[in-house]
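Q: What does the assembly look like in three dimensions?
Context provided by user:
Components: two
Sequences:
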Amino acid sequence: MAAVRDNVEEIRSRVILGEFGVKNVHTTDFPGNYPGFDDSWDMKRFQKNFRIDVVHLDESSMEFDMVGIDAAIANAFRRILLAEVPTMAIEKVFIYNNTSIVQDEVLAHRLGLIPIKADPRLFEFKNTEDEASEIDTIQLQLKIKCSRNPRASKDSSDPRELYLNHMVYSRDIQWIPLGNQADVFADSCIRPVHNDILIAQLRPGQELDIVMHCIKGIGKKVAKVVNSRLDTCSREVLRHVDLKNLVKLGRVRDHFIFTVESTGILPPDVLVTEAIQVLMAKCQRLLGEMDSTDME
Amino acid sequence: MAEESDKKPKLEVVQADGADEGCVTFVMHDEDHTLGNSLRYMIMKNLDVEFCGYTITHPSESKINFRIQTRGGSPAVEPLRKGLNDLHEVCQHVLNTFQARVNEFKERQDQPME
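A: Here is the predicted structure of the complete assembly.
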């Protein structure tokens, strides 16, 4: 009987790694599946077993363990972190003059991928029909012209010496405040996260004159606003070929390691906080819908 | 938090099963595995629920069909409501624990530097 009990414990709490496949992947501890176990949802038991341990935290990445939660919910957080945390990104590009070799659409595409350092929590989502206003849009400008360097020596062939402004970097993007944005964002000026992203290369006589509108979006709708990369994996166990018949490898089912790397707009702990709040907002919206249809 | 681009209701009920209120299929718009799987897990933990599952009808449409069948004939909206509330509480608890831990970690980091 003791052996049966251990086996059941193992099925309930471990994901077995066999040589060729993974067994016991799905959660089976629902009420009624195992006689003698009370599996119905118990908030107190969850709170007692749940634990978060932060392993590493800095400006751009963090690593933490989440223990005692089911894969379904951990995966929901992972999916939200990747695709549904709102970010500010360049959406509309108005090209007034582009005489560089880079085509308009390629240039616009590259600009859209640049992360903009603006806190998305301070902005509203923009309806597509509305005019750009100060609460939902950031206006940026890129105006640069390449010219010959009059002080270059006659026989040099190094572009850095011969030309001025021949490489267009993300630091050349300037922010144009709309409305009251100059006061609201006085201390934290809005600019791209990284200064050294190469946007285009120019030669003398070529210029760029572009105005960009940057709005709040989520990764699901706009593929360029993805905010962070995340790895969720259970703890790795090394395999040794000569021991494979003697060793049984199992991963603990409800222990997850999250590694969150941010693009730099928001620190990673804020990203995780936002992701959890997105999930709560989804539940609230459905609850609100249910209540309003019931009252009709 | 997503934009309300049109006035489509978020949640609809497919009137499939006659007078039996215990077996209902809900259609949720603009949702996918993110909410579907986590909500399914919470509702399955309910003793009253005999069956709970969801499908994405077609990958190009972002809507899910969510089915709940209860034992004993109680209306299916009750486990749905309870599941949503429980999921909300879980998120709240995770959020509180996470913020407490992060603050602890930051304090511990500051202390050796002083």
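Follow-up: Chain A touches chain B through 53 residues (CB under 8 Å).
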